[in-house]
Amino acid sequence: MSGQQHSAVNEQEKHHKHEGPKKHIIGFIMSILLTIIAFAMVAAGEINTTFIYLFLVLMACVQVFIQMGFWMHMKDRGHLYPIIGILMGVFVVFTIVIMAEYWAWW
């Protein structure tokens, strides 16, 4: 086998290497911890309601990034088009919500 063919085979093996359950377990534990933290904030009841709402939205955003990275493998190479599609969808949804609020307000 020539050096160039051997290099191509090694590159292909690196690209299709199986991660194993370690990263899934880490992602699962992080998701559970974020859920417990959010539940504890709400269950405390003595915290400002506005702060709790903002905190829950922040926790939801962090949870989305964890789900995208660990479960949907968006952190891996080759996922540019799905990421662009998701960002475009988020942009469209935010635009619709903002325009609906603007329309209802006036």
Automatic annotation (TrEMBL):
GO MF terms listed in the record are: cytochrome bo3 ubiquinol oxidase activity; proton transmembrane transporter activity
In its UniProt record, which GO terms are filed under biological process? aerobic electron transport chain; electron transport coupled proton transport
List the record's Gene Ontology CC terms alphabetically. Answer: cytochrome o ubiquinol oxidase complex; plasma membrane
The residue ranges flagged as biased composition, category Polar residues, are 1-10
How is it placed in the membrane, per its record?
Multi-pass membrane protein
Name the InterPro entries on file.
Answer: Cyt_c_oxidase_su4_prok (IPR005171), Cytochrome_c_oxidase_bac_sub4 (IPR050968)
Q: In which compartments does the protein localize?
A: Cell membrane
Top-level lineage group: Bacteria
- Where is the chain membrane-spanning? 25-45, 51-71, 83-105
Q: Give the principal location in a single coarse category.
A: membrane
Q: Where is this region: Disordered?
A: 1-20
Keywords attached to this Swiss-Prot or TrEMBL record, sorted alphabetically, are: Cell membrane, Membrane, Transmembrane, Transmembrane helix
Q: To which protein family does this belong?
A: Belongs to the cytochrome c oxidase bacterial subunit 4 family.
What's the protein name? Cytochrome C oxidase subunit IV
This chain's source organism reads: Paenibacillus rhizovicinus
